[in-house]
Amino acid sequence: MTLSELYTHIKNSLTAQFPDPKERGIVSRCIVGGVTGLDGNECILHPDRRVEIDNTAVNNIIKRISDHEPLEYVFNSAQFIDIELYTNSNVLIPRPETEELALKIVGEIQARLQRDNRGGDKPISILDIGTGSGCIPVYLATKFPGCQFSAIDISDDALATARSNAERHGCNINFIKADILDYQTSAMFDIIVSNPPYVLESEKALMQSNVLDYEPDTALFVPDDDPLKFYRAISKFAVGHLNDGGKLYFETNEKFGVETAELMRSCGLQEVEVIKDLFDKDRFVVGM
Description:
This protein has helices at residues 3-13, 21-36, 42-45, 55-66, 71-74, 96-116, 135-143, 156-168, 209-212, 229-241, 257-266; strands spanning 78-80, 83-85, 125-129, 148-153, 173-177, 189-194, 199-200, 221-222, 242-251, 273-276, 282-287. It is of the alpha/beta class. It has 2 domains: 3-65; 79-287, 3-Layer(aba) Sandwich (Rossmann fold). Strands 5-4-3-6-9-11-10 form a 7-stranded mixed sheet, with helices on both faces. Strands 1-2 form a two-stranded antiparallel sheet. It has a two-stranded parallel sheet with strand order 7-8. It is globular and about 65 Å long.
């Protein structure tokens, strides 16, 4: 079979799922790449190239995609900024907003290193709360291996996925199973970051089946009557576990940026700032 024949077969099989030809083409090229190990664009650049394909496996993948299963779970792979992560249905698929959050922390670490001129001094310590796939600490650890990273999650399965990603990229991260609602530690940190559950239960009706049917509920949803429960617990924790000048970084529901900032101030955090994402939505809140 040629790459062109494979691409055409996949694209024609996904017409109902992806009526928009452009989107269908993008997804089809991703599948071509996933089943051949080649760059998906090869089917456009070298359409006559022949490949050996397991038709049963290809059709199974097409069925999974047709059933709305995300590509990131089908191929157990997701891109996060410039690194590749192992993903499965035990963890959320990393979003562009979380990439923005990680890049903001890159800037903070760089500023601290320049300001403090840390060499053999105590390393910058960073805690990720609700780490999921480990995308934030793994990415940061690839850029700043001299920092000290810890990450907690309530899910054994999520932690196994995060450890796999840390091992893949040669990162030294202390993973801890814990529930932040009652977590106790004597450790202190320079930076605490969290992208906790923040989607309201009432917003389920607005979400697509590829999210609802496959991504873990516990990492997504909070009750409508207490949407800031995790932000409250983490803010209180941060006040007692941030070093002088330490910072807390949140990713938030766009509806609750201002409320999250007010909550952080009420817990004792200072210089709290709501920051918009690339889509001009209140997405991040930072406090000292």
